[in-house]
Amino acid sequence: TASRTQQTYEWPFPVRVTATVAAADGSAVSGSVEFSSGATVLGTVALTNGQAQLTLPETFPVGSNPITATYLGTDTLAGSVSTPVNVLVVKAPSLTILTASSSSQRRNTSNPVKLTAYVSVPFAGRASGSIEFKSGTTVVATVPVASAKATYTLPGNLSLGTYSYTATFVPTDSANIAGSKSNTVRITVRR
Which are the contacts of 146, defined by CB distance < 8 A and separation ≥ 6? Predict the structure, then answer.
């Protein structure tokens, strides 16, 4: 059995799997249980009162993972294999927040607005990757994340009008960490 059927990559709340072994005649059972996922052995645990428990690693691979418990048997009791218990590991979520130094700038200014995107990946360490700054649907800059943020300075010669900007986090470890899109920031270019 499993304490839950889903866990999040690198979050400190991993799933615990439990194997229960019983003899047909009701006698006490000793020995060990080997837990595995596919061909990967996760650990071998000695039985205590007929049970063995294993806590899955926080960095268990993202995806569907069938967990099998194999009782290794003793000189007097044959081994046995459980039916698999499936544990789904989902990507660690991220959060991106976009801010602006001002909501407007003058045309042909020498002091344009600066956008700053802040990125957090709870429980998964410092965010690593890049930020795609977009004006509407057009990528205007791709900036590496440093110290959990990335900045982009608008061109000083933007035409008059209102522009909508967003920031999208593209993680380096995209297999295990989810990207995220920020809120929208609107900047008005005036005379």
Answer: none
